[in-house]
TrEMBL record:
Gene3D superfamilies xrefs: Jelly Rolls
Species per Swiss-Prot/TrEMBL record: Roseovarius marisflavi
NCBIfam families: CBU_0592_membra
Transmembrane segments: 12-28, 40-57, 63-83
Protein name: Cyclic nucleotide-binding domain-containing protein
Alphabetized Pfam families for the sequence: CBU_0592, cNMP_binding
Transmembrane listed as a keyword: yes
Domain called Cyclic nucleotide-binding: residue spans: 125-215
Cell wall biogenesis/degradation keyword on record: no
Sorted UniProt keywords: Membrane, Transmembrane, Transmembrane helix
């Protein structure tokens, strides 16, 4: 009776391991976990360990080898993530950018983004985009101020955040001219470099598109709010 109960316990360990395998893969396909993040690696480590445990009573060499290799690979992945997280460093300006517009992007991907651009002290009159001309750079305004001009009229001021986010990944004309009107610190990334990186790194592309879309939504909400307030004053 004890042996039967023990065998049943091992069987259920195997079933649970299969469940972890299926759940991790389903979550990956649904975009709820990333292949290079801790949750996916940990779930696979648990799955392989449970299935290997179940093989201790119904041994199969080929199956055992697969589980052992899966445990080794998952452990390596977890250690690699830990080392990358511990060794990736950002300066003060970079941290402000990340916290402002890339707040949940993993450190390695944020580092990849930052490595493709440069910091510039922009003087008054520096043109960041021109109305009707293709957007060639993604710009982050750390401090200072930029004037937004449409049809030769000033329509808004920008004091921070992304500029050019709507048309940099799929090149298109800027909807307005943006000009620095106070000495500013900006971060400039060539659109070509972003597109090249996004084409070779799907995870980088997903995070970047998410944050650019959020920046666009935020600007639209702010614009609608200003228009509404303007109508109420009339």
């Amino acid at each position: 009776m004890f042996q039967l109960a023990q065998n049943t316990l091992y069987d259920w360990a195997g079933y649970l391991g299969v469940g972890f395998y299926l759940a991790s893969y389903a979550l990956l396909q649904m975009g709820l976990v990333r292949g290079s993040h801790y949750p996916y690696a940990i779930m696979n480590l648990i799955a392989a360990s449970l299935v290997l445990l179940s093989l201790s009573v119904k041994f199969n060499l080929s199956a055992a080898i697969i589980q052992i290799m899966w445990i080794i690979i998952s452990t390596f992945g977890i250690c690699r993530l830990y080392v990358i997280e511990r060794t990736t460093r950002f300066n003060e300006n970079e941290l402000r950018l990340i916290n402002d517009v890339l707040y949940d992007m993993p450190k390695p991907l944020a580092r990849k983004f930052l490595n493709r651009g440069i910091w510039i002290d922009a003087d008054v009159g520096t043109e960041l985009t021109r109305e009707g001309a293709d957007v060639t750079n993604l710009v982050y305004l750390l401090n200072g101020r930029a004037d937004v001009i449409s049809q030769e009229k000033s329509i808004a001021s920008i004091r921070g955040g992304f500029i050019g986010e709507m048309n940099v990944m799929q090149p298109g004309p800027a909807s307005a001219t943006v000009v620095i009107d106070q000495p500013s610190r900006i971060f400039v990334v060539p659109g070509e470099a972003l597109r090249k990186t996004a084409n070779t790194d799907s995870e980088f592309r997903a995070y970047l598109q998410e944050h650019l879309a959020l920046a666009t939504r935020t600007k639209l909400i702010e614009t609608n709010s200003r228009l509404s307030q303007s109508e109420q004053r009339k």
